[in-house]
Specification:
The complex is a heterodimer of chains A (about 250) and B (about 280). Chain A is α+β, with helices and mostly antiparallel strands and about 250 residues long. Chain A contains six helices and 14 strands. In chain A, strand 11 and strand 12 form a beta hairpin. The chains are: A alpha+beta (about 250), B alpha+beta (about 280). Chain B: Pfam families: RimK (PF08443).
């Protein structure tokens, strides 16, 4: 019996997710979603979908989606002038889908704000959660040792520039995938100190972001939090790490 | 301490807002033209810098009327504009309304879900995508955009294709008696709109009339405003008999249209109070 949906853009992680419990999952690409899936949604009866001869009500199923900000991939059949309207229509609909399903990585209207994942926002909330964070400066080189980046959204591999300056700390970069489930707490791919896990849990709850990866600078037992992203940087992980992470998530929800 | 009004110079709401202000008395109310950000107005980490002279530290801003409606134009410094979004979302006090909260406007189905939970009466509504639809014979139906993209609302029987591809919202037509409710803090301003058109916004003969709402409707409107963390909103109803059918909530209402139609500045004055302009 089907109890989960994966809306994907053919990433490695989505392919790995599909390997686990394949009979319980329907995987739909972004192109098929936009062009093939027949949808009837009513507030009272839920989301009825028809896809390749199968009909199912996806309300209350678990959902993993990575298409919300990539819908443009499936819009090739639409006139360019219509694409923005059509994309917004799908995003608008997918917001209510995510609210009706047990979504692993839900997006709410408020989270669509451009400020959500900005460094000033993440570092402010991280500091409130008790995490060690670097100093930062915007648009101007500060008088402490700092690296400049070309946008307000930080990942360790962000291109250098003159928009965001982050204090440089000694140490090595850690990318740590995470997933939060209300029954099982924070799932991480590496063991971190209990206090740090509690602080990170507090951070993801305050952001309402339940899936993604953290960025730390690690040096002599000290973890400095630099940011997070809701999307995995797949090239930074080994296959078995992603596979183990996917298996853990699927065991939580299937 | 300053009150910032941030938006586009051509916005009729901003023009209406400032037409009610005594410029000499209210020098601490500053208009920020969003298209000048990065041009004649710089946003620094600690404050605003104006090319014409003067600075406003961010911690000297006591309130903001946010009228950022569209994406910034090409000349605008996008990095500064994005930083402004964070200032409005998380730094400044008393922002009407915070950008992240105005995004409730992005999805009408999201709004309907929340309104239903609060107890509003919702018209029979459904969404179709990649489907054919059938025009009901027992009653009329209207169809409209599901997102914040503005569309002209019309009856389904006027659409000859009877097929949709992108998600479209269909609702039972509950009558032609529209009511717009503006909620400003805890204050309610209700206007009845009489029009023969399906979409009164496109009817130049629309007539406006101030009305009193039943208390339970007023209470629900204030609850909905709070549910979306809004200070100011415009809520649309279709009224049939005693039933108020919730249609949608607009977190950036173009209220000047209603005040002009009514020859009344009550909403603007309530906004002044909320922004602390008369303090």
């Amino acid at each position: 019996m089907i109890n989960g949906i994966i809306l994907h853009r053919d990433t490695l992680f989505s392919r790995i997710l599909q390997v686990h419990h394949p009979k319980k999952i329907v995987a739909i690409s972004v192109t098929d979603l936009i062009n093939e899936v027949k949808i009837r949604y009513c507030l009272h009866t839920g989301h009825l979908w028809a896809y390749r001869g199968k009909e199912f009500n996806i309300s209350d199923m678990f959902l993993y989606q990575e298409v919300f900000f990539s819908l443009g991939i499936g819009l090739a059949h639409y006139a360019i002038a219509d694409q923005d309207y059509v994309e917004c229509a799908w995003q608008s609909y997918l917001l209510s889908v995510q609210a009706s399903c047990q979504t692993i990585n839900p997006i709410t209207p408020a989270q669509m704000s451009v400020s959500t994942y900005q460094t000033p926002n993440l570092l402010m909330l991280a500091k409130k959660a008790g995490l060690q964070v670097p100093r930062y400066s915007l648009f101007e080189q500060p008088n402490y040792l700092a690296q400049g980046y070309n946008k307000l959204w930080f990942q360790p591999h962000t291109r250098w520039g003159k928009v965001l300056y982050l204090e440089q700390m000694n140490g090595v970069w850690y990318y740590v995938p995470f997933s939060y489930h209300p029954d099982y707490g924070l799932r991480l791919t590496m063991e971190l100190p209990d206090k740090l896990v509690r602080q990170l849990t507090s951070l993801v709850l305050s952001l309402s972001v339940y899936f993604g990866e953290f960025y730390f600078k690690y040096n002599s037992g000290l973890y400095t939090f630099y940011g997070l992203s809701p999307v995995l940087s797949e090239s930074k992980y080994r296959y078995h790490e992603l596979n183990h992470f996917a298996k853990t998530i699927m065991e939580d929800v299937v | 301490m300053y009150t910032l009004v941030i938006g586009n110079q051509s916005d009729v709401v901003i023009r209406h807002f400032f037409s009610c202000i005594d410029a000499k008395k209210h020098r601490s109310v500053v208009f920020i033209d969003v298209n000048e950000i990065g041009v004649s107005i710089q946003i620094k980490q600690n404050g605003w810098v104006f090319l014409s002279g003067g600075e406003i530290p961010h911690n000297q801003v006591k309130s903001v009327y946010n009228r950022l409606l569209d994406a910034p134009s090409e000349g605008v410094n996008h990095h500064q504009y994005y930083f402004l979004s964070w200032l409005l979302d998380s730094f400044y006090p008393n922002v009407i309304n915070r950008p992240r909260d105005t995004l409730c406007n992005f999805s009408k189905t999201w709004q309907l879900m929340v309104a239903k939970k609060i107890g509003f009466t919702i018209p029979d509504s459904y969404v179709l995508a990649n489907e054919q639809y059938y025009v009901p014979t027992l009653h009329k139906e209207i169809y409209k955009s599901i997102s914040s993209h503005r569309s002209i609302v019309d009856h389904t029987d006027r659409n000859y294709r009877k097929q949709v591809h992108e998600p479209v919202l269909f609702q039972k037509d509950c009558g032609r008696f529209n009511v717009r409710v503006h909620v400003v803090g805890q204050q309610i301003f209700a206007t009845q709109l009489n029009s023969k058109s399906v979409d009164y916004r496109y009817d130049q003969a629309t007539q406006f009339q101030s009305i009193w709402l039943p208390k339970w409707v007023s209470d629900q409107c204030i609850m909905l405003n709070s549910a979306f963390n809004l200070y100011f909103s415009g809520i649309d109803f279709i009224v049939s008999g005693q039933d108020y059918f919730f249609l949608e909530i607009n977190p950036s209402p173009g209220y000047a249209y209603f005040e002009s139609g009514m020859n009344d500045n009550g909403i603007t004055i309530a906004l002044f109070d909320l922004l602390g302009i008369n303090d």
